[in-house]
Recover the amino acids of this structure.
């Protein structure tokens, strides 16, 4: 500190200015880093988390629509409605593929959901076709209905859990951005 007392007043005033500028640059660099990190988090929310949520919600609706089409096919006796259900099934599969492309970390989980849905669709389609054509006995029908409902509930529960996880990831990224500001 001896050097400070020997400094002229002019140099002391200039040193204060330099220290102020350096301090400002440190604060500016820190603020810039936080802004860049927040921009990345918000981009992830916009480009990954939100689209995944949208597709999960759409698939929940498709699942119900497929079940409804199976029921309508049986009550009306029209096999064409099973073809409509197959179209919805293809849309479900496409949405699963898009989710996996958007968020590779969840790929295994969504492949499992896709497989569960395929098993549900096969069971529901077989049941509906058998009921419309009259090839199922009462005992076969009873077990096929129970099997189809069980598989549908499994898909519904898996979608619900995945939606909850995706929603938490979405809100977590927003909360992290908010906390870092």
């Amino acid at each position: 500190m001896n050097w400070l007392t020997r400094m002229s007043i002019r140099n002391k005033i200039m040193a204060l200015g330099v220290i102020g500028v350096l301090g400002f640059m440190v604060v500016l660099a820190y603020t810039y880093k936080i802004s860049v990190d927040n921009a990345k988090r918000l981009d992830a929310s916009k480009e990954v988390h939100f689209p995944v949520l949208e597709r999960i919600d759409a698939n929940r609706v498709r699942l119900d629509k497929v079940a409804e089409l199976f029921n309508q096919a049986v009550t009306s006796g029209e096999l064409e409605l099973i073809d409509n259900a197959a179209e919805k099934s293809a849309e479900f599969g496409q949405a699963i593929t898009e989710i996996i492309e958007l968020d590779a970390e969840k790929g295994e989980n969504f492949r499992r959901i896709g497989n569960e849905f395929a098993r549900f669709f096969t069971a529901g389609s077989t049941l509906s076709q058998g009921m419309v054509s009259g090839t199922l006995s009462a005992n076969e029908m009873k077990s096929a209905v129970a099997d189809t409902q069980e598989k549908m509930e499994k898909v519904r529960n898996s979608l619900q859990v995945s939606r909850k996880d995706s929603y938490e990831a979405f809100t977590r990224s927003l909360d992290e951005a908010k906390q870092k500001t």
Observations:
- The longest helix spans residues 9-76.
